[in-house]
Amino acid sequence: MGPFCQTGLFDKKLYRKKTYNVKRKRFRLPISLHFDKIKTVQDGLIIRDLGLTRYADCLAYQEELCAQRQADVIADTVLLTEHEPVITLGVRMADNKILAMPEDLRRQGIEVCRVGRGGAATAHNPGQIVMYPILKLSRLRMGLSDYVHILGQIGIEMLRCFGIRAEWRKQTPGLWTAGRKIGSVGVQVRKWVTLHGIAVNIYNDLSIFDAIVPCGLKGVQMTSVWKELGTAPSMQDVRACLAELCRHYLTGLEGRSDE
Question: Which residues are catalytic, by number?
Fold first, then answer.
């Protein structure tokens, strides 16, 4: 079952965000792969750069890949994307707190989606990098807690590459720097195959988090690479760094890129 989404019209002229000189492309979902046409799984890790996506479309694509990975039709896959403005609500319903009125969100073009990942409310928008690994944990001989820890480590090392010293907090899962939250982790596992993943703020407009209580944490301050340093890397550099870290942490093989 896909997400329940309340839809707003995403209009870049209405959406309040800083302007950066970054080219983005809208991702169109590929033609579905058919189980009967692919007989073997290729070794290595597939990394797909989806560009800018609508959240519900990307989640449907994740679910399709998850089913294929469960059946060993495809290899372990990592999706890299940015999302159009969206607030997502996790399974911890009591912690899903939205502060803005629905009509205000619709006017700003911000969708609201209920999904099956762990955690509480969070937000995505352009300038935030999101990574969705579709992995068979049994192949990696990895438990769920180990996997979540590795996601955090990938985020920490990526931020270190760009001058941010971040840490993982076990009691309040996510990436933190100088007491401010810069990244969020929320995962789901179906028959030992993972969905959802990690989101890190690079140069996105942080005002979207004013509409929620991020991750159910009252008083939390959200930050980004841009806010901390006054500058930020390009998304191309961020994606390249994440691809190398994924190949290091998520497979013992060299991996390959699928563009």
Answer: 215
